[in-house]
Protein backbone atom coordinates (compact mmCIF):
# COMPACT_ATOMS: atom_id res chain seq x y z
CA UNK A 1 0.00 0.00 0.00
CA UNK A 2 1.18 3.55 -0.68
CA UNK A 3 0.96 4.39 3.01
CA UNK A 4 3.87 2.00 3.66
CA UNK A 5 6.19 3.40 1.00
CA UNK A 6 7.43 6.60 2.64
CA UNK A 7 11.08 5.72 2.05
CA UNK A 8 10.55 5.85 -1.73
CA UNK A 9 8.62 9.13 -1.84
CA UNK A 10 11.57 11.54 -2.09
CA UNK A 11 12.95 9.68 -5.10
CA UNK A 12 9.66 9.97 -6.98
CA UNK A 13 9.90 13.77 -6.80
CA UNK A 14 13.28 13.84 -8.57
CA UNK A 15 13.95 14.13 -12.30
CA UNK A 16 15.46 10.65 -12.26
CA UNK A 17 12.32 9.41 -10.55
CA UNK A 18 10.24 10.94 -13.36
CA UNK A 19 12.45 9.42 -16.07
CA UNK A 20 12.44 6.06 -14.32
CA UNK A 21 8.65 6.13 -14.30
CA UNK A 22 8.37 7.20 -17.92
CA UNK A 23 10.74 4.50 -19.12
CA UNK A 24 9.21 1.72 -17.05
CA UNK A 25 8.36 -1.19 -19.29
CA UNK A 26 4.55 -1.32 -19.68
CA UNK A 27 2.84 -4.30 -18.14
CA UNK A 28 -0.25 -5.20 -20.15
CA UNK A 29 -3.15 -6.98 -18.45
CA UNK A 30 -2.73 -10.78 -18.41
CA UNK A 31 -3.55 -12.26 -21.82
CA UNK A 32 -6.47 -14.33 -20.52
CA UNK A 33 -8.26 -11.33 -18.92
CA UNK A 34 -11.92 -11.05 -19.93
CA UNK A 35 -14.55 -8.66 -18.61
CA UNK A 36 -17.52 -10.27 -20.32
CA UNK A 37 -20.79 -9.66 -18.40
CA UNK A 38 -19.27 -6.59 -16.75
CA UNK A 39 -20.31 -2.94 -16.83
CA UNK A 40 -17.82 -0.08 -16.91
CA UNK A 41 -18.24 3.68 -16.67
CA UNK A 42 -15.51 6.07 -17.81
CA UNK A 43 -15.84 9.83 -17.39
CA UNK A 44 -14.20 12.19 -19.88
CA UNK A 45 -14.09 9.37 -22.41
CA UNK A 46 -14.80 11.11 -25.72
CA UNK A 47 -11.08 11.71 -26.21
CA UNK A 48 -7.63 10.96 -24.83
CA UNK A 49 -6.79 8.32 -22.27
CA UNK A 50 -10.43 7.80 -21.26
CA UNK A 51 -11.41 7.03 -24.86
CA UNK A 52 -8.53 4.60 -25.25
CA UNK A 53 -9.46 2.87 -21.98
CA UNK A 54 -12.97 2.37 -23.42
CA UNK A 55 -11.46 0.75 -26.50
CA UNK A 56 -9.40 -1.58 -24.29
CA UNK A 57 -12.45 -2.60 -22.25
CA UNK A 58 -14.28 -3.44 -25.48
CA UNK A 59 -11.32 -5.49 -26.60
CA UNK A 60 -11.65 -7.49 -23.37
CA UNK A 61 -15.32 -8.11 -24.13
CA UNK A 62 -17.08 -5.68 -21.77
CA UNK A 63 -20.82 -6.25 -21.92
CA UNK A 64 -21.90 -2.63 -21.35
CA UNK A 65 -19.70 0.44 -21.63
CA UNK A 66 -20.96 3.82 -20.47
CA UNK A 67 -19.07 6.77 -21.86
CA UNK A 68 -19.73 9.64 -19.47
CA UNK A 69 -19.08 12.89 -21.32
CA UNK A 70 -20.08 16.52 -21.08
CA UNK A 71 -21.03 16.91 -24.72
CA UNK A 72 -23.58 14.51 -26.18
CA UNK A 73 -22.40 15.31 -29.71
CA UNK A 74 -18.73 14.61 -28.93
CA UNK A 75 -19.70 11.48 -27.02
CA UNK A 76 -21.85 10.20 -29.90
CA UNK A 77 -19.01 10.76 -32.35
CA UNK A 78 -16.58 8.86 -30.11
CA UNK A 79 -19.08 6.05 -29.48
CA UNK A 80 -19.72 5.77 -33.23
CA UNK A 81 -16.00 5.07 -33.79
CA UNK A 82 -16.01 2.36 -31.13
CA UNK A 83 -19.23 0.74 -32.35
CA UNK A 84 -17.72 0.59 -35.84
CA UNK A 85 -14.56 -1.01 -34.48
CA UNK A 86 -16.49 -3.41 -32.23
CA UNK A 87 -19.70 -4.36 -34.07
CA UNK A 88 -22.40 -5.63 -31.73
CA UNK A 89 -20.91 -3.86 -28.72
CA UNK A 90 -23.16 -2.19 -26.17
CA UNK A 91 -21.92 1.38 -25.82
CA UNK A 92 -24.00 4.10 -24.17
CA UNK A 93 -23.27 7.81 -24.02
CA UNK A 94 -24.41 9.57 -20.87
CA UNK A 95 -23.80 13.21 -20.12
CA UNK A 96 -22.22 14.58 -16.99
CA UNK A 97 -20.94 18.15 -16.69
CA UNK A 98 -18.34 18.18 -13.95
CA UNK A 99 -18.75 21.94 -13.47
CA UNK A 100 -22.26 21.33 -12.18
CA UNK A 101 -23.23 19.59 -8.94
CA UNK A 102 -26.78 19.18 -10.31
CA UNK A 103 -25.50 17.41 -13.39
CA UNK A 104 -23.40 15.09 -11.22
CA UNK A 105 -26.39 14.23 -9.05
CA UNK A 106 -28.56 13.49 -12.08
CA UNK A 107 -25.81 11.29 -13.51
CA UNK A 108 -25.50 9.37 -10.24
CA UNK A 109 -29.26 8.73 -10.26
CA UNK A 110 -28.90 7.10 -13.67
CA UNK A 111 -26.01 4.98 -12.40
CA UNK A 112 -28.11 3.82 -9.46
CA UNK A 113 -30.62 2.30 -11.89
CA UNK A 114 -28.03 0.10 -13.61
CA UNK A 115 -28.35 -3.62 -12.82
CA UNK A 116 -24.62 -3.85 -12.09
CA UNK A 117 -21.48 -1.72 -12.14
CA UNK A 118 -18.06 -3.36 -12.05
CA UNK A 119 -15.68 -0.49 -12.62
CA UNK A 120 -15.80 3.27 -12.73
CA UNK A 121 -12.93 5.45 -13.85
CA UNK A 122 -13.18 9.10 -12.84
CA UNK A 123 -10.90 10.39 -15.56
CA UNK A 124 -12.46 13.73 -16.58
CA UNK A 125 -10.16 16.63 -15.74
CA UNK A 126 -8.70 19.75 -17.26
CA UNK A 127 -6.06 22.41 -16.87
CA UNK A 128 -7.53 25.88 -17.31
CA UNK A 129 -5.13 28.40 -18.81
CA UNK A 130 -6.63 31.53 -17.24
CA UNK A 131 -8.12 32.03 -13.79
CA UNK A 132 -11.84 31.32 -14.22
CA UNK A 133 -14.56 30.71 -11.68
CA UNK A 134 -17.64 28.55 -11.87
CA UNK A 135 -20.57 30.95 -11.32
CA UNK A 136 -22.74 28.45 -9.40
CA UNK A 137 -20.09 27.70 -6.76
CA UNK A 138 -17.62 30.58 -6.99
CA UNK A 139 -14.72 28.12 -7.11
CA UNK A 140 -11.87 28.21 -9.58
CA UNK A 141 -12.64 25.92 -12.52
CA UNK A 142 -9.67 23.52 -12.43
CA UNK A 143 -10.09 22.96 -8.71
CA UNK A 144 -13.84 22.60 -9.15
CA UNK A 145 -13.70 19.94 -11.86
CA UNK A 146 -10.57 18.02 -10.83
CA UNK A 147 -11.02 18.10 -7.09
CA UNK A 148 -14.39 19.17 -5.67
CA UNK A 149 -16.68 17.72 -8.32
CA UNK A 150 -14.63 14.54 -8.63
CA UNK A 151 -14.85 14.15 -4.86
CA UNK A 152 -18.62 14.62 -4.96
CA UNK A 153 -19.06 12.09 -7.74
CA UNK A 154 -16.86 9.56 -5.91
CA UNK A 155 -18.77 9.95 -2.64
CA UNK A 156 -22.19 9.65 -4.28
CA UNK A 157 -21.12 6.60 -6.27
CA UNK A 158 -19.65 4.68 -3.35
CA UNK A 159 -22.88 3.43 -1.73
CA UNK A 160 -24.22 2.54 -5.16
CA UNK A 161 -21.11 0.54 -5.99
CA UNK A 162 -21.25 -1.19 -2.63
CA UNK A 163 -24.90 -2.11 -3.18
CA UNK A 164 -24.02 -3.61 -6.57
CA UNK A 165 -21.37 -5.93 -5.24
CA UNK A 166 -22.14 -9.40 -6.53
CA UNK A 167 -21.94 -12.20 -3.99
CA UNK A 168 -19.32 -14.72 -4.97
CA UNK A 169 -17.74 -12.45 -7.61
CA UNK A 170 -13.95 -12.64 -7.88
CA UNK A 171 -13.63 -8.89 -7.34
CA UNK A 172 -15.84 -6.21 -5.80
CA UNK A 173 -16.69 -3.10 -7.88
CA UNK A 174 -13.70 -0.82 -8.45
CA UNK A 175 -13.62 2.96 -8.27
CA UNK A 176 -10.48 4.39 -9.88
CA UNK A 177 -9.90 8.12 -9.53
CA UNK A 178 -7.24 9.33 -11.93
CA UNK A 179 -4.28 11.14 -10.41
CA UNK A 180 -1.08 12.63 -11.72
CA UNK A 181 2.54 12.18 -10.74
CA UNK A 182 2.82 15.95 -10.99
CA UNK A 183 1.55 15.76 -7.41
CA UNK A 184 5.02 14.48 -6.45
CA UNK A 185 6.54 17.80 -7.51
CA UNK A 186 3.80 20.18 -6.41
CA UNK A 187 4.08 22.31 -3.30
CA UNK A 188 1.38 24.25 -1.56
CA UNK A 189 0.67 26.47 1.40
CA UNK A 190 -0.54 24.31 4.26
CA UNK A 191 -1.20 27.02 6.84
CA UNK A 192 -4.74 28.30 7.18
CA UNK A 193 -7.73 27.27 5.09
CA UNK A 194 -6.88 25.05 2.14
CA UNK A 195 -9.67 25.35 -0.38
CA UNK A 196 -10.03 29.13 -0.04
CA UNK A 197 -6.48 29.51 -1.42
CA UNK A 198 -7.74 28.54 -4.83
CA UNK A 199 -10.62 30.97 -4.90
CA UNK A 200 -8.25 33.91 -5.30
CA UNK A 201 -6.59 34.78 -8.58
CA UNK A 202 -3.35 35.98 -6.93
CA UNK A 203 -0.51 33.61 -7.69
CA UNK A 204 -2.57 31.64 -10.21
CA UNK A 205 -0.63 29.47 -12.61
CA UNK A 206 -2.34 26.83 -14.74
CA UNK A 207 0.22 24.12 -14.00
CA UNK A 208 0.33 25.04 -10.31
CA UNK A 209 -3.45 24.91 -9.84
CA UNK A 210 -3.65 21.69 -11.84
CA UNK A 211 -0.82 20.06 -9.86
CA UNK A 212 -2.41 21.14 -6.60
CA UNK A 213 -5.82 19.85 -7.65
CA UNK A 214 -4.25 16.42 -8.18
CA UNK A 215 -2.22 16.65 -4.96
CA UNK A 216 -5.40 17.32 -2.97
CA UNK A 217 -7.15 14.52 -4.84
CA UNK A 218 -4.40 12.11 -3.78
CA UNK A 219 -5.00 13.03 -0.13
CA UNK A 220 -8.73 12.64 -0.70
CA UNK A 221 -8.47 9.17 -2.24
CA UNK A 222 -6.23 7.92 0.56
CA UNK A 223 -8.76 9.09 3.15
CA UNK A 224 -11.84 7.99 1.22
CA UNK A 225 -10.56 4.42 1.14
CA UNK A 226 -10.69 4.33 4.94
CA UNK A 227 -14.48 4.51 4.80
CA UNK A 228 -15.04 1.42 2.72
CA UNK A 229 -13.95 -2.14 3.16
CA UNK A 230 -11.81 -3.38 0.26
CA UNK A 231 -14.09 -6.44 0.11
CA UNK A 232 -17.01 -4.15 -0.77
CA UNK A 233 -15.48 -1.59 -3.13
CA UNK A 234 -11.87 -1.23 -4.23
CA UNK A 235 -10.67 2.35 -4.48
CA UNK A 236 -7.41 3.36 -6.10
CA UNK A 237 -5.71 6.17 -7.99
CA UNK A 238 -4.05 5.31 -11.30
CA UNK A 239 -1.51 7.69 -12.80
CA UNK A 240 -1.15 7.32 -16.57
CA UNK A 241 2.20 9.17 -16.69
CA UNK A 242 3.08 11.78 -19.28
CA UNK A 243 1.06 10.94 -22.37
CA UNK A 244 1.32 12.34 -25.87
CA UNK A 245 -1.53 12.81 -28.29
CA UNK A 246 -4.41 13.56 -25.91
CA UNK A 247 -6.46 16.76 -25.84
CA UNK A 248 -5.03 17.85 -22.52
CA UNK A 249 -2.77 20.64 -23.77
CA UNK A 250 -5.11 21.83 -26.50
CA UNK A 251 -5.52 25.31 -25.00
CA UNK A 252 -1.80 25.95 -24.57
CA UNK A 253 -0.55 28.96 -26.54
CA UNK A 254 1.45 28.08 -29.65
CA UNK A 255 4.94 28.37 -28.20
CA UNK A 256 4.16 26.51 -24.97
CA UNK A 257 2.27 23.94 -27.05
CA UNK A 258 5.37 23.38 -29.18
CA UNK A 259 7.51 22.93 -26.07
CA UNK A 260 5.04 20.37 -24.68
CA UNK A 261 5.05 18.57 -28.04
CA UNK A 262 8.87 18.43 -27.93
CA UNK A 263 8.86 17.09 -24.36
CA UNK A 264 6.27 14.54 -25.39
CA UNK A 265 8.45 13.55 -28.33
CA UNK A 266 11.30 12.91 -25.88
CA UNK A 267 9.46 11.34 -22.95
CA UNK A 268 5.76 10.91 -23.72
CA UNK A 269 4.00 7.58 -23.64
CA UNK A 270 1.52 6.64 -26.33
CA UNK A 271 -2.08 7.07 -25.27
CA UNK A 272 -2.84 3.36 -25.63
CA UNK A 273 0.06 2.59 -23.29
CA UNK A 274 -1.21 5.21 -20.83
CA UNK A 275 -4.67 3.62 -20.88
CA UNK A 276 -3.26 0.27 -19.82
CA UNK A 277 -2.58 1.87 -16.42
CA UNK A 278 -6.36 2.29 -16.04
CA UNK A 279 -6.95 -1.31 -17.00
CA UNK A 280 -4.26 -2.37 -14.54
CA UNK A 281 -6.00 -0.39 -11.78
CA UNK A 282 -9.50 -1.64 -12.55
CA UNK A 283 -9.08 -5.26 -13.63
CA UNK A 284 -5.76 -6.42 -12.18
CA UNK A 285 -5.14 -4.68 -8.85
CA UNK A 286 -6.74 -6.14 -5.78
CA UNK A 287 -6.95 -5.30 -2.10
CA UNK A 288 -3.22 -4.56 -1.91
CA UNK A 289 -3.87 -1.38 -3.90
CA UNK A 290 -6.86 -0.13 -1.88
CA UNK A 291 -6.44 3.61 -1.33
CA UNK A 292 -3.13 3.58 -3.17
CA UNK A 293 -1.45 5.62 -5.86
CA UNK A 294 -0.78 3.23 -8.72
CA UNK A 295 1.71 4.40 -11.28
CA UNK A 296 3.61 2.53 -13.94
CA UNK A 297 1.74 -0.68 -13.21
CA UNK A 298 2.94 -0.76 -9.59
CA UNK A 299 1.89 0.62 -6.22
CA UNK A 300 3.86 3.79 -5.59
CA UNK A 301 4.21 6.11 -2.58
CA UNK A 302 2.03 9.11 -1.99
CA UNK A 303 3.75 12.50 -2.37
CA UNK A 304 6.31 12.98 0.40
CA UNK A 305 4.26 15.64 2.19
CA UNK A 306 1.54 13.07 2.93
CA UNK A 307 3.77 11.24 5.46
CA UNK A 308 4.93 14.14 7.62
CA UNK A 309 3.34 16.25 10.34
CA UNK A 310 2.48 19.00 7.85
CA UNK A 311 0.72 16.47 5.65
CA UNK A 312 -1.31 15.14 8.57
CA UNK A 313 -2.59 18.64 9.33
CA UNK A 314 -3.32 19.21 5.65
CA UNK A 315 -5.12 15.88 5.48
CA UNK A 316 -7.42 16.66 8.39
CA UNK A 317 -8.17 20.23 7.35
CA UNK A 318 -8.73 19.34 3.72
CA UNK A 319 -11.12 16.58 4.68
CA UNK A 320 -13.06 18.86 7.00
CA UNK A 321 -13.32 21.58 4.36
CA UNK A 322 -14.27 19.10 1.65
CA UNK A 323 -17.04 17.70 3.81
CA UNK A 324 -18.27 21.23 4.55
CA UNK A 325 -18.41 21.94 0.82
CA UNK A 326 -20.18 18.68 0.01
CA UNK A 327 -22.44 18.27 3.00
CA UNK A 328 -25.32 19.76 1.00
CA UNK A 329 -25.73 16.15 -0.20
CA UNK A 330 -24.96 14.70 3.23
CA UNK A 331 -21.43 13.63 2.26
CA UNK A 332 -20.26 12.93 5.84
CA UNK A 333 -23.31 10.83 6.60
CA UNK A 334 -23.05 8.88 3.35
CA UNK A 335 -19.50 7.94 4.26
CA UNK A 336 -20.23 7.16 7.91
CA UNK A 337 -23.11 4.92 6.80
CA UNK A 338 -20.74 3.04 4.52
CA UNK A 339 -18.71 2.02 7.54
CA UNK A 340 -21.66 0.66 9.42
CA UNK A 341 -24.12 -0.65 6.86
CA UNK A 342 -23.54 -4.16 5.47
N1 LIG B 1 -2.08 13.69 -20.53
C1 LIG B 1 -1.20 13.51 -19.57
O1 LIG B 1 0.03 13.59 -19.79
C2 LIG B 1 -1.66 13.19 -18.17
C3 LIG B 1 -0.71 12.95 -17.18
C4 LIG B 1 -1.13 12.62 -15.89
C5 LIG B 1 -2.49 12.55 -15.62
N2 LIG B 1 -3.39 12.80 -16.61
C6 LIG B 1 -4.80 12.70 -16.26
O2 LIG B 1 -5.43 11.80 -17.16
C7 LIG B 1 -6.80 12.15 -17.33
C8 LIG B 1 -7.15 12.23 -18.80
O3 LIG B 1 -6.33 13.18 -19.42
P1 LIG B 1 -6.16 13.27 -21.00
O4 LIG B 1 -4.74 13.59 -21.24
O5 LIG B 1 -6.79 12.11 -21.67
O6 LIG B 1 -6.98 14.60 -21.29
P2 LIG B 1 -8.05 14.99 -22.42
O7 LIG B 1 -7.72 14.31 -23.71
O8 LIG B 1 -8.11 16.47 -22.41
O9 LIG B 1 -9.41 14.39 -21.86
C9 LIG B 1 -10.04 14.97 -20.76
C10 LIG B 1 -11.48 14.58 -20.73
O10 LIG B 1 -12.10 15.24 -19.61
C11 LIG B 1 -13.28 15.87 -20.07
N3 LIG B 1 -13.67 17.03 -19.27
C12 LIG B 1 -12.97 18.17 -19.05
N4 LIG B 1 -13.71 19.03 -18.34
C13 LIG B 1 -14.89 18.43 -18.09
C14 LIG B 1 -16.08 18.80 -17.44
N5 LIG B 1 -16.23 20.01 -16.90
N6 LIG B 1 -17.10 17.92 -17.38
C15 LIG B 1 -17.00 16.70 -17.94
N7 LIG B 1 -15.90 16.28 -18.61
C16 LIG B 1 -14.87 17.15 -18.69
C17 LIG B 1 -12.95 16.29 -21.50
O11 LIG B 1 -14.15 16.59 -22.21
P3 LIG B 1 -14.11 17.59 -23.49
O12 LIG B 1 -13.43 16.85 -24.60
O13 LIG B 1 -15.54 17.86 -23.73
O14 LIG B 1 -13.35 18.78 -23.05
C18 LIG B 1 -12.24 15.04 -21.99
O15 LIG B 1 -13.17 14.07 -22.33
C19 LIG B 1 -6.99 13.45 -16.55
O16 LIG B 1 -7.51 13.15 -15.27
C20 LIG B 1 -5.58 13.99 -16.43
O17 LIG B 1 -5.45 14.83 -15.30
C21 LIG B 1 -3.01 13.11 -17.86
Strand content: 5-15%
Q: DSSP helix count? A: 11
Query: What share of the residues lie within helices?
Result: 40-55%
Query: If strands are numbered along the chain, what order do they take across the biggest sheet?
Result: 3-2-1-4-5-6-7-8
Count of individual beta strands: 8
Q: What is the oligomer described by this structure?
A: single chain
The profile of the biggest β sheet is: 8 strands, mixed
Fourth-tier CATH superfamily name: NAD(P)-binding Rossmann-like Domain
CATH hierarchy: architecture: 3-Layer(aba) Sandwich
Uncertain spans: none
Tell me what you see in this structure:
The mean pLDDT is 95. The protein has 11 helices and 8 strands. 44% of the residues lie in helices and 11% in strands. The protein has an 8-stranded mixed sheet, sandwiched between helices.
What's the arrangement of secondary structure elements?
Elements lengths: L5 H7 L2 H8 L16 E5 L4 H12 L4 E6 L2 H14 L5 E5 L5 H12 L6 E4 L18 H23 L10 E4 L28 H19 L9 E6 L14 H14 L3 H14 L7 E4 L2 E3 L8 H18 L4 H10 L2
Parallel strand pairs: 1-2, 1-4, 2-3, 4-5, 5-6, 6-7
Antiparallel strand pairs: 7-8
The structure holds NADP nicotinamide-adenine-dinucleotide phosphate (NAP).
Question: Notable features of this structure?
Answer:
342 residues, Rossmann fold, 8-stranded mixed beta sheet, binds NADP nicotinamide-adenine-dinucleotide phosphate
Quick description:
The chain is of the alpha/beta class and 342 residues long. It is 44% helix and 11% strand.
